[in-house]
Amino acid sequence: MLEIITTMSCGSIYSPVHFPKVFHRHSTFTKSRPSCSVTNSSPSSLLINNNYSNGKVAGSKNPKTTSTTSRGALEDAPLKFPNNTVGIIGGVSTGCTLHFLQKLVDLSSQDEGDAIPFIVCSDPIFNINNLPDSRSQSKLILEKLKERRMFLEKGGSCCIVMPCHSLQAWHEEIGTDSSVPFLHISDYVAKELKEASLKPVEAGSNVQIGLLSSDSNICTKFYQDKLQNEGFEVIYPDRATMDHAVLPAVSAFGRNDMIGARNLLRIAINVLLVKAVNTIVFASHDLAQILPQDDPLLKNCIDPIESLARHAVRRARSINTQQL
Length: 324
Fold this sequence. Notes:
alpha/beta; Rossmann fold; four-stranded parallel β-sheet; 10 helices; 10 strands
């Protein structure tokens, strides 16, 4: 059975953490069911999934366990990952990182294939309450994000992802000189929409994509630019819908009022559908987790975290894994 042991400082958690079923004691994570130990009390922590198809990892005496290492490993770790490892830079809330891991595991297990190896590099400084409000703070966070990218890169990750909407503002600067693909979440949302060959809902208009976010300034700009570059028209909810449906839905979700959150989000989605949008993008980790998976409205929505995980799995699957 997979077990998770966590030691977290209270200040490092931004919102209620909804641990995915994959991390629950009685859930099956991979075929070999490794044990798992996670610590987040140090300035930086790494979650390394060592469950590989050949059962080996360089420098590990127990290849079937998931291990953690501390901040010093960023400079000196003798780790060398299998060459189909997905490197993950943790987000500003534990929940968004775990949401990505849930999707990564679910998608990689759909074809009964071997689990995708991954490594998570996270730091409590990337906290929603610590997001920069000055140039010096922004520079500090950028430097730390680059450190984590370089660590994952030097370890041999086949690709690196940052499954966090709020940190995407630094994506280009972080990945400028990366020698491995540094996947941007908006690229794969636009790619999947393009591949869907959508037709306008109303004759004579462009294909319209709705964008829902709890922060229209930070988290939607890169989606808007990417979608418009692909020829889509981006539609936002009006101010009244934001104030009376979207933001209250996020607030209700934070209080664990799921009935209220779901009712409010359904209102916001229907407002956009009435405006003849083809698909709605959840540019928010919280919004993407509110509706149950069997809700029919989700057929009209895209979870960018899932899109990112899907393409990370494809990238890892395309790599011819070396025997270590």
